[in-house]
Amino acid sequence: MKFFSSLLRRRSALRGAQVSALAYCLLGYAIWACADAIAKLVSSADAPKYQLLAIVAFGGIVSVGMAILAQGKIKLMRPRNPAGLIALSLFSVCTGVGIVVALSHIPFVQYYVIGFMSPMVIALLAAIFMGERLDGPKIFAIVVGFIGVVVAVNPYELLKGHGNLIGIFATVCVVMSFSVQMLLLRVLGRKDSRESLALWPRISSLFIYLAFGVFAGFSPMAWPVVLLAFAWGFVGGFGWLAMAEASQRAPAAVLAPCQYSQILYGAAFGYFVWHETLSWYLALGSVIIMGAGVYMFRHACKLDAIAGAQA
């Protein structure tokens, strides 16, 4: 009886940890959605993009730095792979620029729907550059996900001149750059701490934006724009903290489906703030992409279960 009661307590504790992890993960995605909404407001400002993004990076440094100091984790800040952190910073800059360009050209919810391709792009890049196995179900999910993006973009509308090719291209660039960042985090995370991977790329990005400004020049900015740009980075930093807490409490496979909660946040912000409506092809494309993502997630869970049983 003691054995079974102990087993039940362990299973109950595991469920509790996973529930709290899911709560933190959903909170993190909600915070990131708020940060993206602020980003859309900032992206329309009449100011150099590198200048805006420098303030965004500073806001992220402040929020992440405050958390590191509060938790007493300064000792974990020593970089183990400086070259890798610099590469991570460069792709972070590319992602930031892409976000500003994309959100200034296309609807909020369309940006999110195309962004849902990232798990499938990560799987494809991991197979190409990290030698991970790309089996039939993964290939099927990637192809179906790409079809979903085509449906959501609706090339017929683009040919008629009703879409925005610049915004869509920028969003695809964001997906590619973000996916590379995720692979770099997976590699660098073997030696560097989460705190180091969060703070140093933000610091490096700040210096990259400032260096660009030295050559291109700076322009005066209205205080509301400065505050919004700072809030974007500051709020986004807290999103990272919530996601880091979630990843400590549950494996990535448990948290993966939470990403699709962003379609709800994106649709809500788009409707109530910018009065955007969800077209039929955007809704259909999002369903196809999410279905492909969930299918790939379930397939990965089955592979993990088989590997665990064989170990």
Architecture overview:
- With 311 residues, this protein is an all-alpha fold.
- Helices cover 81% and strands 0% of the residues.
- The chain contains 13 helices and no strands.
- The longest helix is centred in the first third of the chain and has 42 residues.
- It starts with a helix and ends with a helix.
- The N terminus is likely disordered.
Blueprint of the fold:
Elements: H1 2-43, H2 49-71, H3 82-103, H4 108-115, H5 118-129, H6 136-153, H7 155-159, H8 165-188, H9 194-216, H10 223-249, H11 252-255, H12 262-274, H13 280-310
Helix pairs in contact: 1-3, 1-10, 1-12, 2-9, 2-10, 3-8, 3-9, 4-12, 5-6, 5-8, 6-13
Low-pLDDT windows of residues: 1-14
What amount of the residues lies in strands?
A: under 5%
Rg over CA atoms, rounded to whole Å, is: 20 Å
Mean pLDDT: 83
Question: Features of this protein?
Answer:
13 helices, disordered N terminus
In short:
The protein has 311 residues and is an all-alpha fold.
